[in-house]
Amino acid sequence: MSRYIFVTGGVVSSLGKGVSAASLGALLQSRGYTVHVRKFDPYLNVDPGTMSPLQHGEVYVTNDGFETDLDLGYYERFLGVKLSRNDSVSGGRIYWDVLNAERRGDYLGATVQMIPHVTNKIKEYIGRPTDTDFVICEIGGTVGDIEGTVFLESIRQFANDIGRRNVMFAHLTLAPFLAQSGELKTKPTQMSVRRLLESGIQADMLFVRSPRMLTDDERAKIGMFCNLPANNIITSMDVDNIYKIPLVYESQKVFDIMAAHFGLPAIAGDMTKLQRIEKYLSDDLPTCTIGMVGKYFDVPDAYKSLNEALFHAGIQNNVHVKIKKINAEHFSPDDCKDVDGILIPSGFGTRGVDGKIAAAGYAREHNIPFMGICLGMQVAVIDFMRNVVGVADADSTEFSKTCTPVVGIMSDCDTGEMGGTLRLGAYPCNIVPNTLAEKIYGAGQISERHRHRYEVDIKYKDALEKNGMIISGISPDGKLPEMVEIPSHKFFIAGQFHPEFQSNPFTGHPMFNAFIAAAKDK
């Protein structure tokens, strides 16, 4: 039977529960244990798919086409696991399931209540089989949130159901530093743990977010008020890179605490992969600058996976990558004069599209290494059709209803439900031989994740290729262009998919690795 670790948080949001959960998984994996991770978000949206990136950050997409919280990206990158629609569960989805069950008569006329019906549904998702040694479940929000109360009740019940020694509760809190008095205050942590106790849950380990290491006296004080040994109080210290956090936890013997709780042998772990990243961060390496032409820069997490993929590619190429944020709404060619590569990410809506088209054209004309993702591929095609092929009104039906629609909704394609829905999840792509795409991937067929509604129209294939832009990746049925490139260019490639969702810090991703290699050469 799998053992479970529940990660909760208190005091304030955004303390890093997702990274902490992933780090616990990394420590377990370093000892040879298998790990699965799940995220429970109490908010009432059914999933994050309709949330604005400016409020919630990026929407992460799993292989099976489910739109999830960005924390699943942390899990997949840190741990190398493939997660699914069963691993991102919101309060809205729970209530949707319960109410639909009631309408079907599944409860046989019983009065539907928070306990047991809602809590049982939550426990059902928690306990879905994984065939792994450990399942780590992050509970979103903070202790005391109204919508999160039923989730805390569910994990309290779950621990009783499967046995308290098979469950560990890890709680993340904050110890703010008051500069005026020079004090680190532990009271917020004490109150958070007390609020957790009011829900019937005794934390087994505390991660205290702090700008510095806690002193022995501070740990003893927290332990006394929170009913824990001082050794179980861990400093979740501020670091300059999230991949250092497992090493910070390792130095404080976090695995030994988990081993003592679960009755595991206290063996040493292999942290070589993470130590390699730590060395890379401290090495004096050349820097290449990537101009990212986007429009969601007001929220740091809006391009989280993309930023990570560029960082990963820097590791593989032994170069530090600096991202220059270029606002597509106010794009000027001068923005790109000091960059070594130009990247155009995905996006929805008309805002900033003209700037992205102009940026693709600038990269093409000035032989600057270029990579386009999703909408980035579409604007590259639009620019090429307008300024090379000579179709002045080439555009996407997403932006104009009176254009030559080189990009539009391909509703007759057998790729799932199109029309008003998105093409989501992993789809196969056949790579054309003797292309840059084949050189990058070293394979004849690949699988990449999608999140979009519009497609480049295959009927313009001949016009594009006659003028120098080739379709180098295509759907197996031959209907959907998946990749385009310009062979005469130093490095110009774009994909309809989101390769950033399959990047990790230990190997990077082939497209990003090749892009940064080209930028480094420039």
What would the keywords be for this entry?
522 residues; 9-stranded mixed β-sheet; single chain; 7-stranded parallel β-sheet; Rossmann fold; alpha/beta; globular
Compact summary:
With 522 residues, the chain is of the alpha/beta class. The protein has helices at 17-29, 53-56, 71-79, 91-104, 114-126, 149-162, 187-198, 216-226, 245-251, 254-262, 272-282, 304-317, 353-365, 375-389, 436-441, 461-466, 510-521, and strands at 3-9, 35-41, 60-61, 67-68, 88-90, 134-139, 167-174, 177-178, 183-184, 205-210, 233-237, 287-294, 320-327, 341-344, 370-373, 394-396, 404-408, 423-431, 445-452, 455-456, 470-474, 481-485, 492-495.
Helix content: 25-40%
Q: What's the arrangement of strands in the largest beta sheet?
A: 13-12-14-15-23-22-21-18-19
Number of strands: 23
Put simply, the count of helices is 17
Q: What number is the mean pLDDT?
A: 94
CATH fold title of the largest domain: Rossmann fold
The computed structural class is alpha/beta
| CATH architecture classification of the largest domain | 3-Layer(aba) Sandwich
Q: Which segments are poorly predicted (pLDDT under 50) over 5 or more consecutive residues?
A: 411-420
Largest beta-sheet details: 9 strands, mixed
**Which of globular, elongated, flat, extended, rod-shaped describes the shape?**
globular
CATH class of the largest domain: Alpha Beta
Rg over C-alpha atoms, rounded to the nearest angstrom: 25 Å
Q: How many structural domains does the protein architecture include?
A: 2
Which superfamily, in CATH terms, is the homologous superfamily of the largest domain?
P-loop containing nucleotide triphosphate hydrolases
Beta-strand share of residues: 15-25%
Give the distance, in angstroms, between the N- and C-terminal Cα atoms: 53 Å
